[in-house]
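Whiteboard transcription, Tuesday session. T.W. wrote the structure tokens on the left side:
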């Protein structure tokens, strides 16, 4: 996964689920803990990461793959932009 930003103070978290009926969280909401597990520390190395006009790369390597990942981000103003690229092998 590669995250890039054109702004500042964009905070990312990553969640996973094994529930095939899981749905996305509404914008600005928090993923339901009984459906989505916060795996930010496992993947990002911290509870959250903040990108400030930078690019960062994260590798996910696990013996079992969840049904889905949810990448959550909060921006500090309406003019910030985020690109997230995910490659599945």
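and on the right, the sequence the group agreed on:
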């Amino acid at each position: 996964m590669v995250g890039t930003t054109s702004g500042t103070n964009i905070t990312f978290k990553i969640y996973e689920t094994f529930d095939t009926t899981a749905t996305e969280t509404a914008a600005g909401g928090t993923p339901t803990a009984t459906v989505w597990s916060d795996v930010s520390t496992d993947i990002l190395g911290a509870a959250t990461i903040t990108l400030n006009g930078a690019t960062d790369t994260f590798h996910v390597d696990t013996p079992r793959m969840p049904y889905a990942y949810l990448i959550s981000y909060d921006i500090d103003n309406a003019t910030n932009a985020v690109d997230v690229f995910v490659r599945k092998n």
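Someone added at the bottom: Helices lie at 40-44.
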